[in-house]
Amino acid sequence: MATSGTLDDMSRRERWQRILESEVRRWSALSCEELIARLRDLQAYTIEFDVKTYQVEVELLENTERYVHVSVAVDDGGLPASLSPLSLTFVREKSPQTS
User: What CATH number has the domain bearing residue 62?
Assistant: First the structure.
């Protein structure tokens, strides 16, 4: 029986990975200005995928002169797996200012 729990965790993590990749694509397509405006506060929301609900958190980690650094995390709210959500970060370079 322990093996099926491991298989469940793997398929759970695989589902999280698909959602995470989709959300990272969505957020990383935004400009630096849009990211800064939308991520003034932590964005936490739920999405539905294959009739299940998943939690997504998107946070602006850094806003420097040269780039913004964003974190995206996904889990399904189930314990204990959601204590370690699956996450990725990305960096969006700011355009050089022209005068």
Answer: 3.30.1300
